[in-house]
Amino acid sequence: MARRVHIVGGGLSGLSAAVEIAGSGQHVIVHEAGPACGGRARSYEDRKLGCRIDNGNHLLLTANEAVFRYMGLIGALNTLQGPDEPIFPFVDLQKPCVWTLDLSMGRVPWWVFSPTRRVPGMRLSELLSLKRLIDAQPNQVVSDCLLPGEFSRRLLDPFSIAALNTPSNEASAALLGHVINESLAKGGRACLPRFPKVGLSESLVDPALAHLSILKAEVRTGRRVTGLETTNGRVTALVFPDERIDIGEDDAVILAVTAPVAAGLLKDVLPALVVPDEFEGIFNAHFRLERPPVPVGAFAKTRFVGVVDAVTEWIFLKDDILSVTVSAANRYADRDPEELGQQIWREVRQAMDGLLAGPLPVEPPLQRLVWEKRATFAATPSQLRKRPGAATGLVNLALAGDWTATGLPATIDGSIRSGVAAVKALGLRGPMSD
Fold first, then answer.
1. What pTM value is reported for the model?
2. Calpha distance 403→406 (Å, rounded)
3. From residue 426, how far is each of 346, 384, 417 by CA, in Å?
């Protein structure tokens, strides 16, 4: 009888693990508590807007090797789009200015010497901030490393908040330094922006489910695991509200759930396990227009723009939908969501002036406001120390999730890496593995 690998959780971490070993002769079973797989990176039909939207905006870079490897395995690379240049348009609402960061393709950062390609108003001496971040000690926060000036205000601080989903005066400088080493430091070829042509599910979830189906893996939705049984240092059963599944001697379990769920399931099984327990929110606002607007300039190539010194941080255009992402949203927790949505729309109108062929309406169109209050763990130095590795004290159980010790923030790339790491920790490498 083939070894069974039970993967608890059908988000990207769990799907990554399943894709890694499916077709290797092992019987893969994914147990997802909700009605659909994908976790935070999925699409859904929104009745209020009358269309399909992503539950959040995610921008990929060509540096995200784990993501592109995963998408290659599931045959979904052709579902992405993006400019052929490493360009990133920005709008500063406080010191009105529109510019495009235009990186050099190679590792040599020629762009910093060109006033038309770099951050307006920056001084070359401010580049020392990058070295300070890359050399940062574990207890340092990002703001400790940022030199005052436009390079930090207009680029490094917004980049830090977007990547780490944590305010710069709390976020780990060392973690941001690692992100910079894996992206900006590698040059523009590693920083080409990519995003789904249609939606997150169509790029990251649906192709994976189709791939798993072809390889005879099982995906069971609406199946919430409520407990684990263990004997002699190994998992012996998964407990559901209506059944109990025995785990054979050769079987394995990958727990690919959120940190709070993992802590709850393992509190009696692995009482010494420590997981991140502080979280940051993300606020998303989706606005549906009466007709698709016409983008111009660099915005026409990227379909996204960064916004500086505003509640609004990133604006994405997809057909007739303008979507706004606000990271590290705990700082706005006392604000009324509707009032926050109105401010964001005012900022969107201001930011889009000159980036669209015509003006946006004064009153917000149809809108959907989504506040994910525990979107990611807080990427602080103290919380990073609480990230566990994939291996556990149980020989047939491994952990996966963007909150585990991936070396990355809570990103899509980190999620997918964690699934691969869990497979490696259990020695379950299949024929699709490196």
1. 0.95
2. 8
3. 51, 23, 15
